[in-house]
Specification:
Number of helices: 27
Number of strands: 9
Low-confidence stretches: 474-507
Strand order of the largest sheet: 2-3-4-1-5
Helix content: 55-70%
Distance between the termini: 53 Å
Structural class: alpha/beta
Largest sheet: 5 strands, parallel
Number of domains: 3
């Protein structure tokens, strides 16, 4: 057996392999200073997303009004890396930034509430803003002192605390809030007790924190003019559905929006991606926070119509190359590190453009080899193992059906609670692509697709076959073309356009007439093989049904909402079909 020349020339070959292996830690964000050589700019492949512009510039230009901004995205897309870069960017522009990852010592993502977040913010501001007067909290603490004793969080007598002066008093206040936050995170049995004691007093705690922040802003370090708080990793909060059908996500980010906005300084919260797109009140976020949430999508490896997207794929390869060359700058990528280019390309493709999954796949593949290069067999083993993780995250047959429809339609439809879960588990990924629309104009296109690792799972393949068979049954039957299949309660029901449309849109007779004329014109364009006009008409009808669905979002469990979603998907498919006809001609 031939020995890899890279390892043969290096007596510390195993050390080198270990160094490269550790360069692909999937849970370690890049340091904005030390890891600048590893950073890859994915802006174009993420729909022109750039954190310095999308979040930072608003802070720079809003000096007289504190902003609360939401930053959403799938877990593992690189939000922490981007926020650490934003921290550096803002610090270079006269901002004092308090950054903390909330799940590393403050909240339990499996069971988090607003109170936990408020305590965490208080703790880190107290620890960071050392020039500010922590004794501002003494009146609030005095009113809660017996509760703190009952919770065994202090043995200090309050009169003793009041007598402490200077740094010692400040330290004691800071330590108390650190104990509160740590207990909420680490001691599940105490978590609810603490909440019960404090929930009724969050308003007065927020008011006290506001006073502390106001004092701190007057005493910022030399040269700093604005205070910014960045609360990371709240996107990891697991969705929990309550008895009334609502979730903890809604309770935190929607019901408590006023409090989250109310710190009195600029603040950025990360947020689960599902809440920005998959909740009935998602559209309220822009009004509640006075700004649209910024979303960091996964990296587009294909265009919306399924064609390879060179920019995204090349940037993913750059990510791998930079991490390898930090430790082996003279290595030839092929065949020293990777057996062939196809092995590297397969890793990028199967990651779906999800950064953490790419790092995880590479690292898991390294586990299967004793020496370089990384082989196809090792990569296949990593893919198989990671695919099984995704398979186990899908628990019900109807979830596989939703995945199959998303794969077909490139949009979200059906039961909202299902695709919230599938978005959180990353079985469904959101993409953004800045490309030319049908008019040749640059346009931001947002779409959804299943994770590539899901595609090889038998249950998914069976669900796809089921949908294909149903479609074939329609085309082979005598059902008129103005009827389509509506999926509901696992029954195949064929509904005439007039039968479904009039009940759905009965409140707007003018819109009904517009739909009638548009559909007649669409049929004429198809007969005339004018596929460009047909695609434009289909797009307009799709958007009209989307607006109807939006108006019914408060009734997501209703038949009308489900029908509007299905009709919207139907016309989206017609639009895409005609666009493919145009390209093929």
């Amino acid at each position: 057996m031939l020995t890899n020349p890279l390892l043969q020339s290096n007596p510390m070959s195993q050390d080198l392999l270990t160094q490269i292996y550790n360069a692909f830690d999937p849970f370690q964000p890049l340091d904005a200073e030390k890891d600048q050589d590893l950073y890859v700019d994915f802006e174009k492949a993420r729909g022109n997303a750039k954190v310095e512009r999308d979040l930072g510039r608003k802070i720079e230009r809003s000096q007289n009004k504190p902003l609360a901004q939401l930053y959403a995205g799938h877990r593992g897309t690189g939000k922490s890396t981007e926020l650490l870069r934003l921290k550096k960017y803002l610090e270079e522009r006269k901002c004092h930034v308090v950054y903390f990852a909330a799940d590393e010592g403050d909240i339990d993502p499996e069971d988090a509430q607003y109170t936990d977040i408020l305590i965490a913010c208080t703790r880190h501001l107290l620890e960071n803003l050392k020039q500010a007067d922590r004794r501002i909290f003494l009146p609030w603490l005095e009113a809660r002192w017996q509760d703190l004793i009952d919770l065994a969080l202090t043995e200090i007598k309050f009169d003793d605390l009041k007598l402490e002066i200077g740094a010692k008093a400040n330290s004691s206040v800071s330590e108390l809030f650190a104990k509160l936050s740590t207990s909420i995170r680490a001691i599940p049995s105490e978590r609810q007790k603490i909440r019960e004691k404090l929930n009724a007093h969050t308003v007065t705690l927020l008011q006290t924190l506001q006073a502390f922040i106001a004092d701190a802003k007057k005493k910022l370090p030399d040269g700093k003019e604005q205070l910014v708080v960045i609360v990371d990793n709240l996107d990891r909060i697991v969705p929990i559905r309550r008895a009334d059908g609502r979730t903890n996500h809604e309770e935190i980010f929607i019901d408590r929006a006023e409090q989250l906005r109310g710190l009195g300084c600029h603040v950025i919260y990360t947020m689960p991606i599902a809440i920005s797109i998959a909740y009935s009140r998602a559209n309220d976020l822009a009004n509640l926070y006075e700004l649209e949430p910024s979303i960091l999508t996964v990296i587009a490896t294909n265009t919306p119509d399924g064609q390879p997207y060179t920019e995204g794929r090349q940037r993913l390869q750059d990510l791998i190359v930079k991490r390898v060359h930090r430790h082996a700058p003279d290595a030839k990528l092929f065949p020293d590190v990777f057996e062939s280019e196809s092995v590297l390309l397969r890793l990028c493709e199967m990651s779906g453009g999800h950064v953490r999954d790419l790092l995880r796949l590479v690292r898991t593949a390294f586990d299967a080899i004793d020496e370089l290069p990384l082989t196809k067999e090792a990569v296949d083993r990593a893919i198989t193992g990671t695919r099984d993780t995704y398979r186990r995250s899908v628990e019900e047959e109807k979830e596989w059906q939703v995945l199959a429809k998303v794969s077909r339609d490139k949009s979200l439809s059906g039961e909202a609670t299902i695709y919230r879960k599938l978005l959180f588990s990353r079985c469904i990924l959101q993409y953004a692509f800045l490309g030319a629309n049908e008019h040749g104009e640059v346009d931001l296109q947002i779409w959804y697709d299943v994770h590539p690792l899901v595609r090889g799972v038998k249950q998914f393949d069976d669900a796809v076959k089921s949908i294909v068979m149903e479609t074939q049954q329609i085309s082979e039957s005598n059902v008129p073309l103005d009827k389509i299949q509506i999926y509901g309660n696992n029954e195949n029901v064929y509904v005439n356009i007039q039968e479904i449309k009039h009940p759905l849109l009965s409140a707007d007779a003018e819109l009904i007439n517009v739909m009638d004329e548009a559909e007649k014109l669409y049929a004429q364009m198809i007969d005339a093989e004018n596929y460009l006009e047909a695609s434009l008409i289909a797009r307009d009808i799709h958007q009209m049904y989307e607006r109807v669905a939006d108006s019914l979002k408060m009734k997501q469990d209703s038949d009308e909402y489900a029908e509007a979603i299905q009709w919207s998907s139907y016309w989206k498919i017609r639009q895409q079909t005609n666009e493919r006809r145009i390209r093929s001609n």
